[in-house]
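can u do me a favor
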């Protein structure tokens, strides 16, 4: 989208961490990074190195001395924290927030997500600046995330809310799914050869055994090429058997 959320990092400590967060941002189509009082100063060679090519994010990062200035042009602000403290605020998960972010941006609003200092997390004054809180549902006994992880979780859900990617798909590459006719011919070929080889020793057990064999292959989502390969294997094995007998 033309106006993706802004990421605001309050007092980030290491340039390495900023660079990794920038990399996570660009993975998810986020490019507007704002830094408030980075501990080791700015610009940072370490940030550039750890951004792994996300130069558009690092090179255009904006530096601020005050949180208020970093948020001044935003219509809505969301703050990330594992603790809601004493504030009465709406609380979103990253997945729950993503549709709201998309809707806000679609209306032309400028929105930002605020991340607190790495050592202490956000302070009460940061929570009071925000419209709502984002809390990631994690193991209650250990909710600690590093900066890049936290940015990626928010960014990932933002990106996923705007793309139509199937939850599951079978990659066919240069082939295509086998037709039912091809599969039935394969089963018929296999059954004939198994019959001739004496595989079905008890005639009454033949139907359930063939059903089991069918289930094995039908679970595989066979392609046209795979059916041809199986039939070639049957021919090769049967040919070897006939040659051995002769």
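np, heres the sequence
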């Amino acid at each position: 989208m033309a106006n993706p959320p802004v990421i605001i990092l309050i007092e980030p400590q290491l340039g390495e961490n900023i660079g990794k967060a920038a990399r996570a941002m660009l993975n998810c189509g986020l490019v507007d990074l704002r830094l408030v009082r980075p501990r080791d100063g700015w610009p940072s060679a370490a940030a550039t190195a750890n951004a792994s090519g996300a130069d558009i994010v690092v090179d255009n990062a904006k530096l601020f001395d005050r949180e208020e200035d970093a948020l001044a042009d935003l219509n809505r602000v969301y703050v990330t924290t594992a603790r809601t403290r004493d504030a009465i605020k709406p609380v979103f998960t990253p997945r729950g927030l993503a549709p709201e972010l998309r809707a806000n941006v679609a209306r032309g609003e400028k929105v930002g997500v605020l991340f607190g200092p790495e050592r202490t997390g956000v302070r009460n004054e940061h929570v009071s600046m925000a419209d709502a809180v984002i809390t990631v549902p994690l193991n209650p006994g250990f909710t600690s995330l590093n900066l890049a992880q936290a940015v990626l979780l928010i960014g990932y859900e933002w990106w996923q809310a705007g793309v139509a990617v199937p939850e599951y798909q079978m990659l066919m590459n240069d082939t295509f799914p086998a037709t039912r006719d091809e599969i039935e011919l394969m089963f018929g070929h296999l059954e004939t050869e198994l019959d001739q080889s004496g595989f079905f020793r008890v005639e009454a057990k033949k139907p359930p055994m063939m059903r089991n064999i069918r289930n094995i292959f039908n679970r595989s989502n066979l392609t046209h090429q795979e059916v041809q390969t199986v039939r070639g294997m049957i021919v090769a094995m049967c040919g070897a058997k006939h040659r051995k007998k002769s």
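The chain has a mean pLDDT of 91. hope that helps!!
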